[in-house]
Amino acid sequence: MLEIADSAAAAVAPVHDGACVMIGGFGVAGQPVELIDALIAQGASGLTVVSNNAGNGDVGLAELIRLGRVRKMICSYPRQADSWHFDRKYRAGQIELEVVPQGNLAERIRAAGAGIGAFFTPTGYGTPLAEGKEVRELDGRHQVLEHALHADFSLTRAHRADRAGNLVYRKTARNFGPVMAAAAGHSIVQVAELVERGGIDPEVVVTPGIYVDTVVRIASPGQQDPPAGGAA
Amino acid sequence: MSVPRTRDHPLTPHELAAVVARDIPAGSYVNLGIGQPTLVSDHLGPADHVTLHTENGMLGMGGLAHGEDVDPDLTNAGKAPVLETRGCSYFHHADSFAMMRGGHLDCCVLGAFQVDREGNLANWHTGEPDAIPAVGGAMDLATGARQTFVMMGLMARDGRPKLVERCTMPLTGVACVSRVYTDLAVFEIADGRFTVRETFGIGFDELVGRVDVALAPAA
User: Fold this and answer.
1) CA distance B185 to chain A (A)
2) How many domains does chain A have?
3) Would you identify the CATH topology of the domain B5-217?
4) Cβ(B128)–Cβ(B185) under 8 Å?
5) Is B137–A179 a contact, with Cβ atoms under 8 angstroms apart?
6) Which Gene3D superfamilies has this protein been placed in (chain A) (predicted)?
């Protein structure tokens, strides 16, 4: 049964200490800023966070890391021009890091939501990120065994939800949202617009409501300043 | 045998980007890596019929957005704001990398720290002990695109050539690079050797003296 939360605080209330939390977004695009702020206020700690990056500037995930609430980061690109809080924690040995090639990260998340335990992929073969992993030659290529990546919770941002939990996104803010919502035991989505059932054309639904547990409407999502530069 | 010396000076990154752009066939789906390869898009117009892919979920990516056109929900892989082109499409991250891994992208152009004669690529991690590893989509692109081209300065900042006998830095992909565009020459890689296609502001013999790997002139 879909829960429509009254506030971001209510939406993230169930997140417990030690939880694995997926956080959507690619840089600023698709980042659930208000949900992350609510998680900061909520206080859960010892978290494992799965997100493409490891925080930008002094807000959102970067602040969660600064506060020492993240035990482990699983991401593809932690080091950025403005990832100073992560960099400091990492160099001080206060945060664990698992670096995953971006496509493997996305597919491991997708696999979890699709009930696939593991898969073989050519990405990463012969590199340090494949060390210790099973390799097979399939279709004439060396492929590496990668396991599904599950989470207790996901925090993502979509553009519009209806009261059946169906979601549509905006432009490249879609990024990890659909696969994270499916991979988490409890998916929490902030949206700019909430409409009645039937308010979204069924032909254009991107995330069907079956993957969505909690929706909260944040009327005008805050936007951080886009970072000056950096990489994927 | 002589290798054509097609310019009388080493190429600037912008001039080199134009050379790369000219080699991309019409109808191609292409991913341009962060850094120098991004410049290639400045030399591709609608008449070239090249569709740009960005790994954060878009085909038909346009140029950089400025002023009122900036939309925080529409960025490239470097997280800079970009524009749509007519006929573009959006998709989620797993689909974006599926089209890459599945061999649907005709080519990608990446920067590099080192490329060796087997086509092995090192471009994500210097291997220095205090470096924070960060790979992004580099491994997926190097392995997934049907052709992987490198665009880089031939010499590293410390003056050492980036074409090497065997990569000493951690690899990004194995036997994936087939062509290397540099400020001094364009190299093809096949059957474990470098072949020089053309040079810029340098003769073939002088080029041979600058690197520590065997070079063959183009037949």
Assistant:
1) 27
2) 1
3) Glutaconate Coenzyme A-transferase (3.40.1080)
4) no
5) no
6) Glutaconate Coenzyme A-transferase (3.40.1080.10)
